Amino acid sequence: MSNRRVLVIDDEAGLRHTLLLILRDEGYTVQVAEDGEAGLRMALAEPPDLVLCDVRMPRMGGLEFLERYQRAGGPALVIMMSAYGTLDAAVEAMRGGAYDYISKPFNADEVILTLRKAEEREQLQREVARLRREVGEVAGFEHVVGVSGAMKEVMELAGRVAPFPSTVLLTGESGSGKEAIARAVHRASPRRDRAFVAVNCGAIPENLLESELFGHERGAFTGADRMREGLFEEADGGTLFLDEIGELPLSLQVKLLRVLQERTIRRVGGTGEKAVDVRVLTATARDLVDEVREGRFREDLFYRINVVQIHIPPLRTRPEDVPPLAEHFLRRHAPRLGIDSPPLPRDLVPVLAAYSWPGNVRELENVMERALVLSGGAMTVDHLPPHVRTGRHPFQLADDAGDLSVKRRLPALEKSLISRALERCGGNRTRAADLLELSVRALSYKIRDYGLE
């Protein structure tokens, strides 16, 4: 016997009464409604476990009920009831998200069997979700590698926010894996089958960024010889990931805030508004609280994007994640390089774990790809870069008190300063050049000469 709630929606009073008797005999709690409009009010006011809904009714038919119920986030499984001649509509309803349909006329056994099947499916889905929680797995996070307690907490929080459209702010040092978590949140969300669009707000010149985000109309500026959709329109129905959100100019911060509030965009040079359905994820390596305090980031935008904040800890604080990450990168890059994927040699593990990884996960990935290239797959400790083998920061000046030569020490100092400026500016060469008091062209040459690209 069941004590579950069933809502019956049908314009035929006799059928409503018949189903009421059948379902009550089987232990269901039953509510009835005479059309989709009344049924929708009841379903949202007192959520049922299952809905039996006729396809063709006055005022609001079954297809419209289904669409509006699902849009409102109704969780119940909906089973359509279809008379002769409306079978195509019932099939259309299943494409729109209905669980099943029953053809009229039907007998009591058919109704009960269909409801039992629906309940079994729901119970199975709950059991799968429970098992995933018990083993620490979250659907969509299969490609995020991490065994440390800190990363398990990150994935658990990310998995909890993934199903909702709320804005998420990912924080952490450069290279710590913020985009990987953002992609996992998208894969675990109801938007997983739509686009995931990523853009680095510090990598696009300020005068082009507005057009990149919101698009432009033909003739909006010199060279705009055709209309172009922006990234918000490209991500419509999906997820837009705004990396290095702290680099966004103040003038665009105002416009982004308006888009997040109104859910509409206006192309550069346009006059009309266009509605967009986009889930926005943001990331930054900066301390946005300091940025707000210094007047470089709008306080209202900070609160708008900081609905849920997820901090990705630096790799140096979770050395237990280094070996599985290293193995993951070997498996990822070996096929691309035409090399049989090798196991991670045991003697590399303590060396890798002892290094501080100032470039975080991105640096580890580059080191493992380098080792694959140099070794052809049969790698040893000697295939690791010298600074990893010695545990020394690559941009740290040599601690040699006897060497006071400016000529010999100056290149190392310059390389260190450029690296720190690029890290502080999230890779934005224009801002880094301003900090270093260099031209962008001179900085580009030095980045190339020092191998910092």
From TrEMBL:
<dbReference type="GO" id="GO:0005524">
    <property type="term" value="F:ATP binding"/>
</dbReference>
<dbReference type="Pfam" id="PF00158">
    <property type="entry name" value="Sigma54_activat"/>
</dbReference>
<protein>
    <submittedName>
        <fullName>Two-component system response regulator AtoC</fullName>
    </submittedName>
</protein>
<dbReference type="InterPro" id="IPR003593">
    <property type="entry name" value="AAA+_ATPase"/>
</dbReference>
<dbReference type="Pfam" id="PF25601">
    <property type="entry name" value="AAA_lid_14"/>
</dbReference>
<feature type="domain" description="Response regulatory">
    <location>
        <begin position="5"/>
        <end position="119"/>
    </location>
</feature>
<dbReference type="InterPro" id="IPR001789">
    <property type="entry name" value="Sig_transdc_resp-reg_receiver"/>
</dbReference>
<dbReference type="GO" id="GO:0043565">
    <property type="term" value="F:sequence-specific DNA binding"/>
</dbReference>
<dbReference type="GO" id="GO:0006355">
    <property type="term" value="P:regulation of DNA-templated transcription"/>
</dbReference>
<dbReference type="Pfam" id="PF02954">
    <property type="entry name" value="HTH_8"/>
</dbReference>
<keyword id="KW-0238">DNA-binding</keyword>
<keyword id="KW-0547">Nucleotide-binding</keyword>
<dbReference type="InterPro" id="IPR058031">
    <property type="entry name" value="AAA_lid_NorR"/>
</dbReference>
<dbReference type="InterPro" id="IPR002078">
    <property type="entry name" value="Sigma_54_int"/>
</dbReference>
<keyword id="KW-0067">ATP-binding</keyword>
<keyword id="KW-0597">Phosphoprotein</keyword>
<dbReference type="InterPro" id="IPR009057">
    <property type="entry name" value="Homeodomain-like_sf"/>
</dbReference>
<dbReference type="InterPro" id="IPR011006">
    <property type="entry name" value="CheY-like_superfamily"/>
</dbReference>
<dbReference type="InterPro" id="IPR025944">
    <property type="entry name" value="Sigma_54_int_dom_CS"/>
</dbReference>
<dbReference type="GO" id="GO:0000160">
    <property type="term" value="P:phosphorelay signal transduction system"/>
</dbReference>
<dbReference type="Pfam" id="PF00072">
    <property type="entry name" value="Response_reg"/>
</dbReference>
<dbReference type="InterPro" id="IPR027417">
    <property type="entry name" value="P-loop_NTPase"/>
</dbReference>
<feature type="modified residue" description="4-aspartylphosphate">
    <location>
        <position position="54"/>
    </location>
</feature>
<keyword id="KW-0804">Transcription</keyword>
<dbReference type="InterPro" id="IPR002197">
    <property type="entry name" value="HTH_Fis"/>
</dbReference>
<dbReference type="InterPro" id="IPR025662">
    <property type="entry name" value="Sigma_54_int_dom_ATP-bd_1"/>
</dbReference>
<feature type="domain" description="Sigma-54 factor interaction">
    <location>
        <begin position="144"/>
        <end position="373"/>
    </location>
</feature>
<dbReference type="InterPro" id="IPR025943">
    <property type="entry name" value="Sigma_54_int_dom_ATP-bd_2"/>
</dbReference>
<keyword id="KW-0805">Transcription regulation</keyword>
